[in-house]
Fold these 2 entries.
Entry 1:
Amino acid sequence: MGVRDVLASQLPILIVLLCLGTVAKAAVVRSGREPDAAQLGPAVLIPGRFRAPALLVCAAGELALAAGLLLTTHPAVRWATVAFFAISTYVLMELRRRRPDAGCGCFGEVSSAPVGVRSIARTTVMTGMAVMTVWAPVPGWVAFAQPSWGMLLAGLAVLVVLSPEVEELVERARHRAPCEQRPGPAESVMLARLRASGVWRAHRAELASAEPYDSWRELCWRFFVFKNHQEDDVVFAVFTAGRRPAVRVAVVEAGSETLPSYTPVSA
Amino acid sequence: MTYPSVDRRRVLAAAVLGREPGVPGPGADDEPVRAVAGQIRDVSPHLILVETAEGETERLVIAPWAKAWHGGDIAPADLPVGARVVMRTREGRVVEHVWADTIRITGTIVSVEGRKDVSVELDCGPHRGRRTILIPYRVTGRLRVRHPQFEPGYLFDAIGVRKDGTAMALLPATSQPAYPARSVPAPPPVYGGTTTLSGTVTWSDAFDEDERGAAYPMMERSDAGCPDAGVSCAALPYLAIGSLLQVRNVCAGRSAGVPIVACGCLAGRFCDRCVECDTSPRGRIAELSPLSYVELGGDLIKGCFNAQIGWG
């Protein structure tokens, strides 16, 4: 392993982390919810109405750096990355001093734990990695194509140890909200899942129209109602969790307040 | 998307999942209490004549112990003719509580003007638009002490009367949440599937006069057509317009099945408690129409009751 490989070895990590940061910050803004102090990170230090734009600017900056690292060997991009992580380290230290309740916000809402020594150590390590890559002779895509596995895994291991987000993700996976409290997939996605089901194929011919005339979500089910050729209601219930969810169907006579003309079927 | 008939949803959902559709209305073993809403045509110490929303006239007996509220406690016989009232009746015909011209002013503060009499513009959510209310000088202290953040972006909730077309706030309906309206705290984590939840239930005057139903915050945004839906600091399940909510008033021991008829985007922003008979867990779980609220044993002036809801 030459010095060149060592210098370029951390490029893939930096690029992937910058992209993750972009996606997570954009997701925080896009969710539309006013993020609380814990999720905003350094953005809590600026006035409320500038917070969302500040997150977006930061996300765009990260994306630009990631693209630059991936495609070019230009020293300006490399030094900009060093500067970005060095400033982040300083900002996190400042944040820890001024708003001890705020999370680092590095990866959006996952980073809601208060900034600790580990988060600061992580940005310091990443500054170091960025400094290493300044003299790397190849652009990021070459480092992706011919990774030096040993160095890559070592860098990754250090970062995992220093990331409070990993524990947060494990906690979330262990204590997931029950399905009736989780936002479900979009209506169009659920309709596509219904159309991929065997129950749909069995009843498709009866329907007067392929588009539902009513749809709503209740608890863990999304309901779609169609008219059949006799003007009766054909109602499908699709479970909101899973890629191939359970689908049930019933036909209810028009105008009837009573229950189904035949028993529900399970997929 | 249009809703051909939201009542039909309950029947269809019950059919496809093989469960009972549920019937809206009061619980079987409760003492019968009926709420009547209308406009006073005539009132005497013992009788009150009201015209209901359907245009029918109802003649009701005023109980000797009956109470009335019209900006303050008054004798029922002193209620002005023409006032819009909500009444709680026992045995169907005996009035025991009258609330006249009572309004509930809930919203996000948009602007505050005036030094003595304060005029406040409120954003009452995407469905209810904006309204301007007046806080008379004599009650500003009482309202401000429960609304310490009296500035744009914070929530406001008060009870008042409509007088000569002006909405006047008189009583605070809650202690104002300390966060801006857009920063609702996240719900506490829940482990395992429960089918009941406790919290506070309030009322709103944004329903039709003779409507029985509830506004519920936790709906899919695409279903409710409401960009603010799906926010709550209570661990509420997703339901839809047309679902039936079992509401139990813990203070009065009454329960009823109340259909969800509207999106309660604003109710979901309040992470407050009701201290009506005990301290409820945080979070508004539903906003009832005045008739449903009174039939569940609520007092419009108190603004909330501790409640337990069930679904499914």
Entry 2:
Amino acid sequence: MSILESARSIVASTRKTKRGFRQDRYAPYFFISPFYILFAIFFLFPTLFALVLSFYRWGALDTPQFFGLKNYDHLFKDPVFWKSVSNTVFYASCSLFIIVPLALLEALALNSKLLKFRVLWRVVYFAPIVTSTVAISLVFRMLYNKDFGTFNGIIMALGGTPVDWLGDLRAAKLAVLGVVIWRWTGLLAVYFLAGLQSIPEELHEAAAIDGATVLDRFFHITLPLLRPVMLFVSVIVLIGSMQIFDDPQVLTGGGPSNATLSLVQYLYTQGITNLSFGFASAVGLFLFVVIFILSLIQFRVFRGFETD
Amino acid sequence: MSDMKTTRRIATVAINIVVAVIGVIIAYPLVWMISASFKQTTEIYQFPPMLIPNGFTFANYARLFTDWPFGTWYINSLVIALACTITVLFFTSLAGFGFAKYRFRGKGLLFFIMLGSTMVPFQLILIPLFIFMSKLKWTNGYLSLIIPFMAPAVGIFLMRQFMNSIPSELMESARIDGATEFTIYWRIMLPLARPALAALAVLTFLGSWNSYLWPLTVLRTREYMTLPVGMATILGGMLVGSEPPIGASMAGATLITIPIILVFVSVQKQYIAGLTAASVKG
């Protein structure tokens, strides 16, 4: 560095502190304040309100009345609540064990150099990510129709007996799951694809020279290196499926006999349809605790990324 | 060596077949939807369905605009999604800039609070926010769908991550030239953050355009509904035995999804960049 340059930088640094200092002090608060104002009004206040509300009995027309833990007591004694919990756990576990492996498979195939029309397939595979859930659920409602739907059309063409997809207790659950799988696989494949593309090519080449087969390379290179992405994706799937609402709402309305009712649908029905504000807030708190635990796991996973 | 060649050939065929089969399964509902939207009801009932309708008709689309306020729903959705996108871009980039480029007292705690808020599911505040909006008389209107969502924490996090990677030297020299802090944000940071802004814009627009739970909660009057809420009522109100407006609902579903998919194809890169930046970068 020449003397002139260093002199210039010294001058610059002193001027910077002189001029910039006063503004630096208040400017950042000004920049971040819109978030905290909106946060306080539309997030923190409602959150605390929900907490308080869950200890009150409050319908739309009556005056709020302290209720202690009775909302929670009623909640945990309501078989419909437990039905919605078990349905939601069903969606979550099926998503985890079907969608995650499927998405990985999709990403592997889409990433393969042997694939033709790659651009076309990427567009097709990722279309579900941007598709409105309400719209696609309406379409699936037609495809599941027991008289003219495609599913039964195929079953009958193969000589089977048609299924009442949206009316049968067990089939309806699978029907909702079908839409969830359709919607989610592409999204998760995007994450896996990003993970796959960050694996250096040389690793595979070196292993191939050493005589490792495709399967060897998959289990010993790809899979271990994808572990962080895998964990992240799994948590995303679990948190997402705890919040399932749109698909069963449009497809079945939670029926038949609550066979497809999700936890959030239960909350919506109690709070907005029946206007039991206090009771529904207790449901919300239950959901919060579940998601909070899952989020903590997610942060752990993130930290794992940073130390790696 | 020839062994390698045959395995390679088998692998090529296998991969292409698997991708094609899954691809067709994914595309099928969308293709069926578009096809059915141009069919008469009697033809929708036929199996196997014809890709190109025999009795090609625009009646379903026409009906959408006469029997339901579909045009109004479309405008509602568009205005809300655009307003959300513009405000979100402004407020998140501003806050992201504050967090990325300044040192200030309480920064760690403030950042922690912001990030911690992402752990609270929206459904927890659904009921209180609904009561609040009713008291403000904001239900049945645009405000309840825009104002509470103008500064999402995830967006701020994304902008901060991106702006962290922009060198601070540019700011310093601008300061020497006497630029105010806001000018530095507006003139220097914002143009440089364009890739992150584009990704966030796509995410925000889509999130708003497709959202259902909250609009369903606050919008009761037909004229104020957004597309998903209105669309769900088309089949929702149908009586058993009456002729369901299947064609019309498929026409509506086509108009919600297809323009978005076409736009998505053109901005695919930004969208995927945004998705993965919001996640993997951590």
